[in-house]
Amino acid sequence: MSLLTRDTVLAGLRAARRIQQGHLPTQAELAAAPVLSNWVLAEEPGNLFRLAGMVSGHPLLADGWCTTSIVLVMDPDRNWARTVSRLYRLEKPLLRNAGGT
Fold first, then answer.
1. Which of 5, 67, 74, 101 counts the most CB atoms within 10 A of its CB?
2. What is the mean pLDDT of each run of 10 residues along the chain (101 residues)?
């Protein structure tokens, strides 16, 4: 796992705030985002969550298994998620009700 820079964290928080204000990711942003398939939500201490799954198209990681940075915002339909470091497009979860509560 790589360390996140201050700038990366601040950019992620700004992006999450914009999403919460109604500025959803555009089709172009989603098309450029890495894809996560066979994913699950992994709980961290403090009621925080990461995604774990098979990633493809990530700008820094080879295709394969990965665990994301902390999830800041997740689409209610589970089509995308914004983590601290980036936006992910979500494909089929590993479990039928992954992320459902």
1. 74
2. 82 91 96 97 94 96 95 95 96 76 43
